[in-house]
Amino acid sequence: MDDYAWAAGVATDLVNTTAEVWRGDDHLPDLAALVAFTDLHGDQSTDDEVPGALSELARRARTADLHAVHALRETVRDLIDHPDRARLIAGATTLTSPAQGATLIPDPAHGNRTRWAVPLRAGATIADALSLICGIGILGVVHTLGEQRFRPCTAPTCRGAFIDTTRPGSRRYCMPGLCGNRVNVANHRARTRQAPTRDRRPSSE
Length: 205
Fold this sequence. Notes:
The protein has 7 helices and 4 strands. It has helices at residues 4-15, 31-43, 50-59, 63-81, 85-95, 126-144, 176-194, and strands at residues 103-106, 114-117, 150-152, 161-163. Helix 2 packs antiparallel against helix 3 (50-59). It is globular, with a radius of gyration of 21 Å.
């Protein structure tokens, strides 16, 4: 697995499932939600083996595995909230501990070329898989883009955070389609309230 942008996106979406971000409504409350999360993000990976593997691990998960995923998202959120380079590297390296080692495998998309692969150790759980993914995402972003890409959401009422993997590095919201729209609506309403009434004319005496 060498798609760090996808992995960083999984880390971002994982930390933003908490009740803190959703104002009391945890978006990863049970095993069914965990399966849905892995189905969604597995399908977005460029690695053909990831979707089935993630979903299978999630479907085999038990309550203890769900609790481990909840603990993982707190660990990842703490790293995003404190983006010191050395701390990010050390923390993300620990997150990759479920891997059994990095290797190169054939890349069917590029002829005779190879690509990196980081397989999970035998007996790994869905929490292990997500930990590895988040660790690779964080390490990839620190190495390629820098620690300044770890940010809090700038929407005034949001408690979310994100890892910015966009080319210009100008992302502002943890969930652009939601937080960005809320800010735009609030700004529009504020301008509407402050705009002078053009049809109002001074009364004649």
